[in-house]
């Protein structure tokens, strides 16, 4: 019997914004959400889903973002290489990078994983070439010299159904997510196809949605999966992240 994959979660930065950035009608104090990355350790190889931000967003603790300012930041030790080394994983041992999309806070650590092949939706790669914009799509983050594999639609990474890349368009034209089948059940790594659980509860897309029609289709799919028992890890949900234990396998059944 093939051993099951293990799933690890890391926070590779912070994203600070007003509540209305996620749910347009919401008001209140600024929210502080994670910039997650995930490791799937599979008997056939290792995959990292999203890699956080590049070094230019590093700050010293004394120079942290004030509580009332929009922005991104990370501190020493929050880059994906450091997070992997903290659990005794050599960054050079990562076989695949799956970027949900190519915005700067999801692929800024790609260069830290030099031996990985990058898997991205073809339409997302094409969008990044035509929509280059500072603070959004920047080639220095995603075009870092590793082998590139462009995919179209769903892709079974290991050929056994345990790690499936699925298109979740809307936030960007080529956004993708990953469904990991663990012994405890399925987990969907949503990234920015759905920022927070509140977005899905209300079925409200954030303003930062490139394709509203596709975004609603994605939300309907997420709602069906959640109703069927799939656990969804949302893109920048600080409330949910407070319940996530980093650096240990997630959702493992007690022995």
TrEMBL record:
Keywords: Hydrolase, Metal-binding, Zinc. It comes from the Bacteria. InterPro entries: MBL_superfamily_lactonases, Metallo-B-lactamas, RibonucZ/Hydroxyglut_hydro. Residues 34-236 form the Metallo-beta-lactamase domain. The keyword Zinc applies. Belongs to the metallo-beta-lactamase superfamily. Its cofactor is Zn(2+). SMART domains: Lactamase_B. This is Metallo-beta-lactamase superfamily protein. Gene3D superfamilies: Ribonuclease Z/Hydroxyacylglutathione hydrolase-like. One of its GO terms (molecular function) is hydrolase activity. It comes from Novosphingobium kunmingense.
């Amino acid at each position: 019997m093939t051993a099951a994959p293990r799933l690890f979660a890391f926070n590779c930065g912070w994203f600070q914004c007003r509540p209305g950035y996620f749910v347009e009608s919401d008001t209140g104090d600024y929210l502080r959400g994670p910039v997650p990355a995930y490791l799937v350790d599979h008997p056939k190889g290792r995959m990292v889903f999203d890699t956080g931000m590049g070094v230019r967003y590093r700050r010293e603790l004394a120079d942290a973002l004030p509580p009332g300012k929009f922005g991104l930041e990370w501190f020493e030790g929050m880059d994906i290489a450091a997070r992997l080394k903290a659990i005794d994983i050599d960054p050079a041992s990562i076989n695949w990078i799956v970027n949900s999309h190519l915005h700067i806070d999801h692929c800024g650590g790609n260069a830290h994983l030099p031996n990985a092949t990058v898997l991205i939706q073809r339409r997302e790669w094409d969008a990044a070439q035509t929509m280059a914009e500072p603070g959004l799509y920047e080639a220095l983050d995603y075009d870092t010299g590793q082998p590139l594999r462009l995919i179209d639609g769903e892709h079974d990474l290991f050929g056994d159904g345990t790690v499936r890349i699925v298109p979740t368009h809307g936030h960007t034209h080529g956004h993708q997510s990953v469904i990991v089948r663990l012994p405890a059940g399925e987990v969907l790594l949503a990234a920015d196809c759905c920022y927070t659980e509140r977005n899905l509860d209300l079925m409200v897309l954030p303003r930062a949605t490139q394709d509203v029609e596709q975004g609603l289709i994605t939300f309907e799919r997420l709602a069906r999966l959640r109703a069927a028992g799939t656990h969804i890890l949302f893109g920048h949900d600080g409330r949910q992240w407070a319940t996530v234990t980093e650096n240990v396998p997630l959702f493992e059944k007690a022995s």
